[in-house]
Amino acid sequence: MIFGRSQRGKPPVEPVTLKILVAGGFGVGKTTLVGAVSEIRPLRTEELLTEAGRPVDDVSGVEGKHTTTVAMDFGRITLREDLVLYLFGTPGQERFWFMWDELSEGALGAVVLADTRRLEDCFAAVDYFERRSIPFVIGVNCFEGSARYPAETVRRALDLDADVPLVMCDARDRESVKEILIGVVQHVMAQASDRRRAVTT
């Protein structure tokens, strides 16, 4: 950089930053997703599951899970030179849902992770974003050993509106996660364009 300008003579690009939430049920892979794609060391607020929490923490289907997010996960990814996403993973357990309103402040879109073994666990997140008119994409996290269902079958089970994107993914795989996030940005832009057209017609 020379006097605030790049050596090629171009002014530095000021990136657009977007806040994206990552939501879903307990143990669905939110922390894994943020960690898989973040270009910085992700901030995590995980605590060990304890005997005291056993009566309220339903670990059926995720018996191997020993920690839980109690506030949020945070990561960052640069999709393009002029576009940076800040990722906020929400707590999955009902007793920490009070954090959702705080985390959703200023969010332009969301990823709702779903696990076909416990599909009902993502209903609360779908309902939350629908009621607040926050655009979201469903990412079906394909766990090893779990049954595979056609996307249309999962869509019907979730009773999704026709314009809500649904994609199969692997929350551990960086490229798979990037595709979901690109889908969220495209969905947000499409909805904003639809709203503008509705205003001008």
Q: H/E order of the elements?
A: EHEEEHEHEHEH
Distance between the termini: 47 Å
Helical element count?
A: 5
- Gross geometry: globular
Based on CA atoms alone, the radius of gyration comes out at: 18 Å
Q: Name the helicity range.
A: 25-40%
Strand proportion? 25-35%
Structural class: alpha/beta
User: Please, what is the average pLDDT?
Assistant: 84
Give me the side-by-side strand order of the main sheet.
2-3-4-1-5-6-7
The low-confidence parts are: 1-6
Biggest β-sheet description:
7 strands, mixed
Strand elements, count: 7
Descriptive notes:
- The protein has 201 residues and is α/β, with parallel strands linked by helices.
- Helix content is 29%, strand content 26%.
- The protein contains five helices and seven strands, in the order E-H-E-E-E-H-E-H-E-H-E-H.
- The protein has helices at residues 30-37, 99-104, 123-131, 151-158, 174-200; strands at residues 16-24, 43-48, 67-80, 83-89, 109-114, 136-141, 166-169.
- The chain has a seven-stranded mixed sheet with strand order 2-3-4-1-5-6-7, with helices on both faces.
- The radius of gyration is 18 Å and the shape is globular.
- Mean pLDDT is 84; it is low at 1-6.
Salient structural properties:
201 residues; alpha/beta; 5 helices; 7 strands; 29% helix; globular
Can you lay out the helices and strands and say which pair or pack?
Layout: E1 16-24, H1 30-37, E2 43-48, E3 67-80, E4 83-89, H2 99-104, E5 109-114, H3 123-131, E6 136-141, H4 151-158, E7 166-169, H5 174-200
